[in-house]
Amino acid sequence: MPIHEYECERCGAKFERLEMAGDGPAVCGSCGGPAKKLLSAPGKPRMGGPGGRETCCGMAGGCDNPKRCCGS
Fold first, then answer.
1. Burial class (CB in 10 A: 0-12, 13-18, 19+), 35
2. Could you report the per-residue pLDDT of 38-62, keeping only the tens digit for each?
3. CB of 57 within 8 A of CB of 49?
4. Taking the model in full, what pTM does it have?
5. What letters, b where the CB count within 10 A reaches 16 and e where it falls short, cover 59-72?
6. Which of 8, 12, 29, 68 is the most buried (most CB within 10 A)?
7. C-beta separation of 7 from 34 below 8 A
């Protein structure tokens, strides 16, 4: 389910909306006006620390505690 960015045609407020199958037109949460979908750049995957080698718990090079998510 994609998340799209919208802008209200009445008040100019910007917001994001999770698109579900069968959803009706987007409506502004601030004023109730109609909203238009904006073109947004796709998200870039986060590769972590220097060299892109950050582990899932945020420690570069592995954990010092084997009970953590990525082990050592």
1. buried
2. 987 776 665 555 555 555 666 655 5
3. no
4. 0.55
5. beeebeeeeeeeee
6. 8
7. no
